[in-house]
Input
Amino acid sequence: MINFKDEIQRFKPSLEVGDIEQAIAKSDLTDMNDIMLRLIRDAAFRGEDMASGIDADERL
Amino acid sequence: MLPSEVKTWPPVSMQMRDYNALLTRIANAYYNLGLERAQLSDLSGAAELLKRSLRFDKYQTDARNLLGLIYYEMGEVSEALVQWVISLNLSPEDNRADHYLDEIQRKPGIIAQEGLLIRRFNQALHQAQHGAEDLAIISLNQIIRVKPDYVKAQILLALLYLDAGQNTKAGKSLMKVLSIDRNNRLALILMDEVKKRTGRAEVERNRMKNAFSHRRLEDDDVILPKEKKQATAGQTVMHLLLGTLLGLGIFMLLILPSQRRSYNLAANERIAQNSSELNDLNARYSELSGEYESMSAAYQDASERLSAFEEENAAFTSMYRTLVGIQNDYAAGELVSAATEYLGIDRSLINEEPLTGMLAEIDRYMLNEGFDQLVSMGTAAWNGGQLQNAESLYDLALQINGADPEALFLKARLIQSQGRVTEANAIFDVIVGEHPESPYAERAMQARGY
Output
């Protein structure tokens, strides 16, 4: 059984034309590429640190 | 850990190249799936897939542009613009988003109108969420009349209609939504509800059952025609009566209440619409009253300032005319007139240029040449036997400069010759007392008879 009142409450307002600029500025454009790059760099740093005996946290 | 045990890592750039290629392939696959869904009018499904594509590769320009088109198709113009602007920023070269943005900018009224409709939708949503469902229904009807492809507005309207028990109207809105976005989840759920309520679900189920039934007639099957009985005249009349009564009953029980209900609903809608318009008019009236009051106050203020300015200006003009008159009279040799006007000047009113400069100039020649000429004119009148005129001229000169011993002495001598000895003596005393160094002091003493 659908609860109409609940469904109505779930509706979100549409983005107004005046708020477009703000919406663009707030857009999260992170993609998997960025995430992978960060992971690979972190892993590479960790490898170097282990080799040279520096604690990874210390480098950060 | 020893260095020999440390795992060696390939260069970051090399690893990234592999991952990049993989991620691009995944993003493209999602884009292709999204495109397929969009071609089948499954816009919400397509939008989900395109968003996934962009999570894997934000530079998948086609996916972002198509996502913008889908938002535009569903009436979410602002969301579409966001996607196209981002797309153009990420890939400025040879980007179709440029064309879409150009198309919108070429018709300047579009954005303003869309903005207005979106704002009205948000207001209607607020009304719906805060207990003013009637007003929300009216607003949403107005919105979809202008913009029937506004999916969100159609679904909200359908929800409100369903809540109010107006299933047919809800069904109409949902049909429109499903013609734009055929797999819209909420629209499908609501449409099921509409069908359940109107009995349409049962009809469809039966139709489907018949359409896919595998029972076929076989050779041995015999179709027996039904026996028809002939009705008597009485039975026919009875049937006719029963039919009429049944029709009347159906009309009273089924059609009349629904018509009355729809009439009441229409009347309620009209009342709600009228009250909304009345509220708008009241608000506008209050706004205009406020504006009228503030403008009246501004007008009053400006009027007072104008009056003050005019008064100041009138005083200035009058004084200017007086000074110019004195200058003209003096230049024309009308010394008595010039001196009389000069003595009548109210100096407290002269405090700004060019009046102060003009007065200084007049002072300069009235106290010197003007004064001397008046005294000479007085003496000439005396010599001509015009004693009264001579006295007036001396008085005028003494009003300009009352401390001049010569003028004082001449006036005293004039009135002494007329037998007004006491008055003359008083003036002689002033000369002796206040100007003892003057050559006229000794002459005054002689004339006084010391």
Notes: The radius of gyration of chain B is 54 Å. Chain B touches chain A through 48 residues (CB under 8 Å). The domain at 354-448 of chain B is CATH 1.25.40.10 (Serine Threonine Protein Phosphatase 5, Tetratricopeptide repeat). The first helix of chain B runs from residue 12 to 39.
